[in-house]
Amino acid sequence: MTVLPIRTVGDPVLRTPTTLVTEFDTVLGRLVTDMIDTMYDAPGVGLAAPQIGVGLRLFVFDVDYDPRDESVPRVPRVVVNPVLELGPDPGRPGETQRPGETQRSGETQQHGPEGCLSVPGLHFPTTRALAARVRGVDVTGQPVEYAGEGLLARCFQHEVDHLDGILYVDRLTGEARRAAVQALREPPPTPEQARAAGEYLRSLRRSAGSVR
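The chain above was modelled as a monomer; its predicted structure follows.
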């Protein structure tokens, strides 16, 4: 089991759009395994690659996970190179929500508190689309597709935002946004922290090369 440090707000990697995954190899498989271990250890219901300092377009999730209930089985899933669709019918193509935009009112929206492992200790009311679908591939390159409402839809939107260099606090408005700005006045990462992800990926590649 490998648990990695989670990057927090102020780290430039969280503001950098990710690149598509093009190599489906042992390195990717180990990266996904480490992301899953880190997600459960945090604990959280989703984790995107930039949150561990890796600028690749993938995330893992398990919205049914409950660290307080060991009877609930862990069912982690991964989506590589996800494409997000929003709308009351997630089976139909919808628009991608952008920072500052407001979704249509009524049944197409959900309102509720949202948090983030990269913004520790804080939760703010965040508006999201009620329903969402993600399409992508798994760790072997095979197509996958997941759709849902409520927490699952919120998770998809939250994680894909990470892959685009967006944090959930960017979507806040009014008093919630002012409170977030005040709370997030933190120092940037040290150079040692900024180098950590690069060394982690290099170690994965060295390890993969040694078993070939």
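The mean pLDDT is 85.
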